[in-house]
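Help wanted!
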Amino acid sequence: MKLALITDIHANREAFEAVLDEVERHGADAHALLGDFVGYGADPAWVVDRVRALVAGGAIAVKGNHDKAVVDGPRDSMNSDAQRAIEWTRGQLDAAQIEFLAKLPYMVERHGCLFVHANAYAPEQWEYVTGRSEAVRSLNATHARYTFAGHVHDPQLYNLSGLGKIADFTPTPGVAIPVAPHRQWFVLPGSAGQPRDGNPAACWALFDTVRSELTFHRVPYDHDEAARKIAAAGLPARLGERLKEGS
Amino acid sequence: MQSADMPAHDLPAPRVPLEVGQVIDGFRLEEHLHQGGMANLWRVSHPDHAIPMIMKIPRIKGGEDPATIVGFEVEQMILPMLRGVHVPQFIAKGDFTMQPYIVMEHIAGPSLRPRLDQAPLPVEEVASVGVQVAAALHDLHLQHVIHLDVKPSNIMFRPDGAAVMVDFGLSRHDHLPDLLDEEFTLPMGTGPYMSPEQVQFVRDEPRSDLFALGVMLYHLLTGQRPFGKPNTVRGLRERLYREPVPPRTLRPDCPPWLQEIILRCLEVDPASRHDTAAQLAFDLGHPDQVKLTARAERSSTGGRFDTFRRWFAAVGNEPKERGTASTHVTRHSIVMVAVDVAGASPGLMQTMRDTLERMLRTERSVRVACVTVMRTRRVGMDELTDKDGESIHVKRLVQLKHWARPLVQSLGLDDPARGAGVTYQVLEAPDPASAIVEFARRNAIDHIVMGARSSSAVRRFLGSVSARVVAESDCTVTVVREVAGREAG
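Answered by r_m:
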């Protein structure tokens, strides 16, 4: 099976479309969508509908903190740009779309893999896995060999050896990495809709379960159009500008 | 796919002993070739694969030997990524959930290891081994891999002399997670050959392989190890400040150029070594072009003050973050410029200098190999006497240096601080295009710059040398044309 991993789309239609085209071109036969479908971007309704269609076709989808905030109303811990985007997004979605987001699970375990937005040890607390110690904590909280997560927007790959040693790695796009199943792996494909590592191209990853190979990908998309729509919607201009820099 | 309930800390149980005739994933075990400390080697056959093959199977001692297992995993990750004549061709692998193995091409013949017992070897043999191994290392570095365990037992040869590097258990691939990083608390490598930076846990420095090759060449040349055979970390760290005895002290007939090259490989600071394995191979293959420094004449190790100075530098200078195998190699390239000093117009020669100046202005430590081809007859005796031939050869060399002088001056190519420098060659060959292509291939040239004949009539009559070079060479080729109407510079 070739499993496409897509996360943190953040209502960026242009990025999501570009990623889905690439996913199809690479012959993926399954999708896992790791949350934060909305927030920041100008096309929440379109993105939620596309995700619903994929889920109807068998795709895995889990809930992100922005998805929850749109259902419940923004949390005080969010920055002001994010809060404004959440308020605006609530006005863009109909009841069925909100209902879809509300019913998303926090965590899914399937094919021996764990899918979660933030981490496996407290998926509803939204703690970021930004280093080795959080990665170990998350890997120790599951028997699954492979954990796929989002929330952190930069692509990263952690592995825990049989001896309990953790290592991290910043992947090179397009290189198939052997990920042997006797180790545990924590995979952050990186954000599709709002990359922050200085490269504006959208992130996604492909996991070949037969070959036990993982490939991180980047795909360029029309970020100028995505930014124009953010400004036109009256959302904070900074949310569009950062797409051009990938920051 | 692996089931989800396998606990993280269990390693697979050791397998039952293997026997001749047993079949693993379609590979039939034919003959047990070797039992090493880390792995067993079997000759195997498979109905779908005609080439001679070996299967490498790790020795797993009750799941308590992490070095064996991780090293084997590293080789399983890296070998399938590698191509070309300098590595055994990868065929198949089996993972740790079943029977772990790697099947690869069987490279016949002994490794370089037995030659070590026959050292000291003739100077020519030492240099030629060095050229072959450096070429193989350069090829690995271009494929993003640093070997990190270069030593005679890991070097084999194909029938045509090409070196083949084996055993990638300690290697590092730029684009793959480094499973050995953080796993162990001791420096990884083979004691006598380990570079100073490897002793300090640096695993991303391609020039570590040049240090190890320098150790090997020193040993083949003198019969002695430059830093002994330490088996403690303290002993390993000695190479950070203790200079080796200069080879010429042990081997009086060692030419100065070879001592220069070997001691440069053994520099503590990687930046003082050759920039790339290709540049090292070039020097070993062109002794008359080696720029001699104080290293060539050194006759004793540094005095107490020198040792103290090296020690002090070593203590204060823990390794910095470095580049990767491939970025490093591309930054330190060799540019070949082929100039028809006898036939090209002054305007074209000036345009070629200008082009090179623009290209090299922004590059640091590029080596420039200036080449001109002196045509000889294809068959039979040349009508020139040897003496005439020799004088024309010298004349071409003088013309070539004269052509390059303004460029060398304006870019400071001759500045020893830059190290990479400039070399000059007159190739004697009947066919200039083949001579240029062959020179570029042999010397791992990254980029050829050459001129095109300006008159289309002449080009039609004689054929275009540059067009053939573009078609036949493996590297980037820039063809420079004289700008029409331009005054000669």
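OP: Thanks! One thing I noticed: Chain A touches chain B at residues 1, 109, 111-113, 139-140, 143-145, 157, 159-167, 169, 171-172, 175, 177-178, 180-182, 184, 209-210, 212 (CB under 8 Å).
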